[in-house]
Write a structure and sequence with these properties.
By secondary structure, the protein is mainly α. The protein has two domains: 66 residues, no CATH class; 129 residues, Butyryl-CoA Dehydrogenase, subunit A, domain 3, CATH 1.20.140. Helix content is 62%, strand content 4%. It has a two-stranded antiparallel ribbon with strand order 1-2. Helix 1 packs across helix 2 and helix 7 runs antiparallel to helix 9.
């Protein structure tokens, strides 16, 4: 069995570091970021790519992982969302639609074949968000204090996380991906529906309400 390359090993290390912070990324994306960082170091230090690799230590990779994840800092990656502050009011009716939307996202991802390991990670992440959503609805008695219909309190971080998931799925469908056992005609309406929900969730995440 051939020895694994420095690049393959470092990609593994970067994926683990990102995962430890509560997020996932594809192997091709990690490899691209790693290549860009090697090239940047080589240009700045005026050394060869081979020499530049010596500067990508474990600490440097940990820093790269933080840079990636902190781009989503408002989603509080790695946090326990059940114990996070619930300051955003969400109508129960809308929460049900979002729950169903996450199920549709899973169907979209089931037809991806480029990186099966990453797809499994993404499906697990979506299922986790869906589970949080369901448990948070179950954990409360809906009130009508903020809206004129029953609503529950949600952590803004969860709404932002789900919004990103739906937005990414909308992009995939617009690029031609049709979900598993999904009618192509029905699939055509998914991006606009998801983007509408994304706008609403981001608005709700920015509005503080009293429990």
């Amino acid at each position: 069995m051939a020895a694994r390359s420095w690049r393959d090993k470092r990609i593994d290390d970067l994926l683990v570091a990102v995962s430890d912070l509560g997020m996932t990324m594809s192997r091709p994306a990690a490899g691209e970021l790693l290549d860009e960082r090697v090239q940047f170091v080589a240009e700045q230090m005026r050394v060869t790519d081979r020499t530049a690799r010596r500067y990508l230590t474990d600490d440097a990779l940990a820093g790269m992982a933080r840079e990636i994840v902190f781009g989503f800092v408002e989603e509080t990656p790695g946090a326990d969302l059940m114990s996070a502050p619930r300051t955003a009011a969400v109508p129960v009716r809308f929460a049900g639609r979002v729950f169903a939307g996450l199920g549709e996202v899973v169907r979209i991802l089931l037809v991806e074949r480029d990186d099966l390991e990453h797809t499994r990670d993404r499906v697990a992440q979506i299922a986790h968000a869906q589970s949080y959503l369901g448990l948070l609805v179950h954990d409360q008695v809906a009130t009508t204090g903020f809206y004129d219909e029953p609503s529950v309190q949600m952590p803004p971080a969860l709404l932002l996380r789900v919004a990103r998931i739906l937005e990414t799925a909308a992009d995939l469908v617009e690029d031609g991906l049709i979900g598993y056992q999904v009618d192509p005609e029905e699939s055509a309406g998914i991006p606009s529906a998801f983007r509408r929900d994304v706008r609403l969730m981001r608005t709700m995440a920015g509005q503080e309400s009293s429990a």
